[in-house]
């Protein structure tokens, strides 16, 4: 299994190297091989940021029907709660205009001529993506659960047999070893929800035109905070004892200067912080790499560069599929580990 | 919205959606799935266990059968041996009886013969005595005066007697 993966990985890397070399040669040889008289200056940084960040509209392609205008939900003191379409912020030439005293400036909604804070609860691109993700999970997993009801006492079939090994893997290889047999049933639903939410989110994010949901720091913060809350509310005596009176360290590390307690206390927060940062960075970086490679096509204005970068992007996408799964696994695994440390019965000495 | 500053709206929707999704799926999917998996695994384990138990029972049954068979065989051997011993004993007894009877018969016969012989000898003796008396009588009758003639006569008779 691992040997296969390594083999696959080396093959991908070899192909990527070959493609990369071809692409560099062509980039220099054929730089201005087709007319570069586009009316607009192409800014790759803007393009990438635009793709990986949240937005009040969902832009699929240029043209009249290429944009989905999402609902704006804002609350501000004085104006109260307002709900309207984000189409109101754009005129027929796609220029940003003011509406109802609000203006949209680089994704920020503010009140015109005032510094009053605007609470923006709009259904943004990522929120829409979030709903799609949640809906997909509901459809898939109620179907899986139906399979268990229908094939009760029989071998799994269809979608049920696709997800069963993954569910069993999460249970037996991720949750059980980290949280322990005794608490597995209690925390497994959360871990399954977490794993599939991140996995589905990562995979959906790789689709063309999709939003970068799991690569958004707001999403990863919420997931990490939930794990943080579960960890600390599950924490037993041994867990808190370990933090405030770490066993197995010399007394002078605890008194009069509480060095170890402070380090351990900071550790409570660095754990979820590492969770939220890891997922955010891994997914966002993957998107940036793919978009940069695609952007090269437009920087060099070359079909050849396009073909070469297309090939590279294809292989990077394969790696991203792997990353999507690994990141979902890692987030779930570390969440299990942290909760496992909090609920462990005996005091383990490190 | 900047890359590193989380949007309040997205945090809000993410929290609501994720928590709602969790409670919904926990009830509708995760728990039923976990339960079904556990039930299936338990039933598979039970089936395996009972198969193992049946195998063990079979083995013990077979062992029992073999033991019974061995016992039966042993008993049969014992019976055969006993029967043979009994037959031998009977045969030996019969043989001993027969030899005893024959010995007795021989002894009886010997005794009878002895008796007969003695009787015959006695008779012979009697006869000899009678003959002697007769001879003496004849001798006396014929030649009482002539010693030589008497002696010749006695010798003649004795010779006659010997020839008999």
Tell me what the structure shows:
- The complex is a heterodimer of chains A (350) and B (164).
- Chain A is mostly helical.
- Chain A has helices spanning 2-29, 44-52, 125-150, 159-179, 181-205, 217-234, 237-244, 259-300, 303-343; strands at residues 57-59, 67-69, 71-76, 80-85, 102-105, 108-111, 118-120.
- Chain A has a domain at 125-343.
- Chain A has a three-stranded antiparallel sheet with strand order 4-3-7, with no helix packed on it. In chain A, strands 1-2 form a two-stranded antiparallel ribbon.
- In chain A, a hairpin with a 3-residue loop joins β3 and β4 (80-85).
- Chain A is globular.
- With 164 residues, chain B is mainly alpha-helical.
- Chain B has one domain.
- Chain B is rod-shaped.
- The termini of chain B are far apart.
- The mean pLDDT of chain B is 88.
Keywords:
heterodimer, A: 350 residues, mainly alpha, 3-stranded antiparallel beta sheet, two-stranded antiparallel ribbon, 9 helices, 62% helix, 8% strand, globular, B: 164 residues, 93% helix, 0% strand
What's the SSE blueprint?
The complex is a heterodimer of chains A (350) and B (164).
Chain A: H1 2-29, H2 44-52, E1 57-59, E2 67-69, E3 71-76, E4 80-85, E5 102-105, E6 108-111, E7 118-120, H3 125-150, H4 159-179, H5 181-205, H6 217-234, H7 237-244, H8 259-300, H9 303-343
Antiparallel strand pairs in A: 1-2, 3-4, 3-7, 5-6
Helix pairs in contact in A: 1-9, 2-8, 3-4, 3-5, 4-5, 4-9, 5-9, 6-8, 6-9, 8-9
Chain B: H1 8-142, H2 147-163
**The biggest beta sheet of chain B, please?**
none
Cα(first) to Cα(last) distance of chain B is 172 Å
Question: Which chains have the largest interface?
Answer: A-B, 50 and 35 residues
* Helix/sheet category of chain A: mainly alpha
- What pattern of helices and strands is seen along the backbone of chain A? HHEEEEEEEHHHHHHH
Q: Helix coverage percent of residues of chain B? A: over 70%
Strand content of chain A: 5-15%
Count the beta strands of chain B: 0
The number of helical runs of chain A is 9
Largest sheet of chain A: 3 strands, antiparallel
Overall mean pLDDT of chain A: 84
Oligomeric description of these chains: heterodimer
Percent strand of chain B equals under 5%
Give the H and E element order of chain B: HH
Global outline of chain A:
globular
With helices defined by DSSP (H or I, 4 residues minimum), what is the helix count of chain B?
Answer: 2
Mean pLDDT of chain B equals: 88
Q: Radius of gyration of chain A, Cα only, in angstroms?
A: 25 Å
Shape of chain B: rod-shaped
